[in-house]
Amino acid sequence: MADPIEKAKETAARKAVEDHFDPAARYIGIGSGSTIVFVVQAIKDRNEDLSRIRFVPTGYQSRQVIVKAGLQPIHFDSLPSGVLLDVAFDGADEVDEDLNCIKGGGACLYQEKLVATHARKFICVADQRKLQSRLLSKWDRIPIEVEPLAAHSVLERLAALGSQEATIRSGAIEKSGPIKTDQDNFIVDAKFKHPLLPTPTKVEGDVQGAKEDRQWAVETLAKEIKQIEGVLSVGLFCGENGLEAEKAGKSAGGQKPVAVYFGMEDGSVVIRKAGETDIVVNKQGEDKTKDSLQR
Predict the structure, then answer these.
(1) pTM score above 0.90
(2) pLDDT tens string 54-68
(3) Mind telling me the catalytic residues?
(4) CA dihedral (220, 161, 166, 232) positive or negative
(5) 3-state secondary structure of 34
(6) Any residues with CB less than 8 A from the CB of 203 and at least 6 apart, and which?
(7) Which residue among 9, 34, 156, 232 is buried most deeply as judged by most CB within 10 Å?
């Protein structure tokens, strides 16, 4: 019997590809993780002419998935100047009600953010476990890619921001030392006491009492961490999405997905877009709207 979580990922991936894959696209970003395997397979199964499309991976694993499917990979730094990806498909470790995401659990953080911020639209595909009202509800840490030389000073600064526990991620075998990213950096996992607020409030960053009790908003905390010397990338994808950045006249910079596809164990797919009522697509492919499952 098929694993219901894996089946949910596949269902969400196929619906996301159905809605957002364009055979006329020139460049498509392909993220990391188990869900993306289903995205690539869904693209392959469309039986379109894919010979003109170049697929930009976010790391070694996703490049291998692209190659295995017989598609054409291209390194991010080989993209023509000024060109944006038509779309980028990727997963997430957790997504809140405003489509802010935690990413980086698979240690491909910097490349994932590079691809997301250089796509006209980032489409996130996940299963129902990732659907939360606030970040740090179930997924309890923020991945941060750091320069190894600065790792310990980064840990000190994170403690000053209220992180209850920040550690350098180690491999499965302790003696092998810290996990290295494709850029030879370390990943720091930082835990905070409270789930993050989707948007700032007057309570956010309250300095009264112990620093561990501060209530951080997603974007504010992301900016504070990014300012720490030695931090390359923060695993909070927040702020504008690609369409908003393009509308504002920016050449790149959107981090948030324009839509998230959550595969549910009952075979349906919940589609969430910013500021809109969730759409539920049942197993028969019928659409209906309903209030968010978490709001």
Answers:
(1) yes
(2) 999 999 999 999 999
(3) 112
(4) positive
(5) helix
(6) 197, 215
(7) 9
